[in-house]
Amino acid sequence: MSSLGRASAILGAGTLISRVTGLVRTIVLLAAIGSVGRASDAFSTANQLPNNVFTIIQTGILTAVIIPQIVKSASHKDGGQAFISKLFTLGTVVFLAATGVAMVLAPWLVFMYSSQFTPDQLALGTAFAYWCLPQIFFYGLYALIGETLNAKRVFGPYTWAPIANNVISIIGFIVFMMLFGDNRNHVEMWDPTMIAVMGGTATLGIAVQAALLLLAWRRTGLHLRPDFRWKGVGLGEVGKLASWTFMMVIAGQLAGLAQSNIVSKASGDHPAGTIMMAAWLVFMLPYSIFAVSIGTPYFTQIAEHTAEDRHDQVRGDVARSIRAISLFIVISAVALAVASVPATRIFTENGAFAEQAAPVLICYLVGLLPLSLLFIVQRTFYAYGDTRTPFWFTIVQCSLIVVSALVAPLLVPLSQLAAAVALGQSLAGLVQTIIAVVLLRRRLGGLELPRVALSLGRFVIAAIPAGFAGWGVYLLIGGADGWAVASTGMTGRLLGAVGTGVVGGVAFVVYLVVLFVLRAPELSVVSGLVKRFLPARASR
């Protein structure tokens, strides 16, 4: 278990720095293009296109299939050398082809996601897309190399490489503002040079991110070489497994497509695509730091245990990972909810709009715990080579997302349309996770659910006074009229971040104190992670 703790600490540290620099990147980006306006939504749509394709590649094929298959390939006579070389050759060809097709279809892709845009907004979005879509190739290589490193228990580089992307982007966006000014949220403000600098900066960062992973490849002990002989090493099995996850992610993208088109109705004067992107970034901060950092090493171990038919240990792995992840995710959701207004102020031009946009973040946070638990539950199915079952419970989620998005405009004004769509997504994710847990419990013959439920109960009890304490601090610093929200300009964004840290920090401390009073055994996870981050002190 010490190796899992060490891996989680390395991943957590890298993810924390990556996400913090990612927040700074977004702050600088929105200072350059604005958080509300047709130009900012056009860039957000174009820059999201390669991310959507990356999601299909990573979640639909790599995470679901590649790690278990690479673990199995280690038993080959050559230690998986031939399998991985063929896999990388095939992957490179697929990524190049996908990028080429996307470039050809750029105008149609932008329209598909933003049919409610004005003609000049669609034209600007398409111009951005031509610069952003090459990210598909670099995202693909980054994911393929990174997942292979994870499968070989080289966990750090995959998490730390995005920091370089964020630094390059921050520098590029600052250069943009130095050359062209800031807050360019109107379509008519943009010319080809400005588009090239903005879009080129975003793509350059992803390219460097992928290149850095190659420097860590020697730690796998594998030697890659181009190999176009794709028969005879099990790639057919990979394709069969990936077909279900591919369809699953396509369904998710179609659900996202419905959301994007509906929310684009609010573009211009109300929270829309850009605000949803920013809120999702904040939402993903605790998810990435805790769910991914703790769950990824467990996933590798679960894959190893399933390969050895050690099902009792799989049940224990799943239960322990759920309890460890939930310990941090419950308080993260509560702390961010009470600090939602200053957290949203980081991305908005003024405090008044932060109050209007904060419900988007709160509605996303409703789904933080279910999504975090799904991370490990869904991957346990993948470890057993079962990609069909996750497809079906994801179809339920996607159906609910589409229905809720279609209903949202009928129930709320445009000013809260983005929040309503976010809430629909969270509730759909809750249903999906419940179904997934029930099916996994049936498959494994148990999941230690009574013990997990007892832990969750302790976390919720501790989170209630923690939430009130955080809310009290928010009111003490002035609430919506205080320094954390009402300040103007870039200073206001930075003070919003400081206010979020103060409110959330107090909530987190109270949470730990209550758990200590309750003598929660899960606190050993916290002390273990602290020891991993401070090895010198721990050894004295």
From TrEMBL:
It holds the Pfam family MurJ. It is found in: Cell membrane. Keywords: Cell membrane, Cell shape, Membrane, Peptidoglycan synthesis, Transmembrane, Transmembrane helix. The chain crosses the membrane at residues 7-33, 83-110, 122-145, 157-181, 193-217, 238-258, 278-300, 321-344, 356-377, 389-411, 417-440, 452-474, 494-518. The keyword Lipid metabolism does not apply. It is a multi-pass membrane protein. CDD domains: MATE_MurJ_like. InterPro entries: Lipid_II_flippase_MurJ/MviN, MurJ. This is Murein biosynthesis integral membrane protein MurJ.
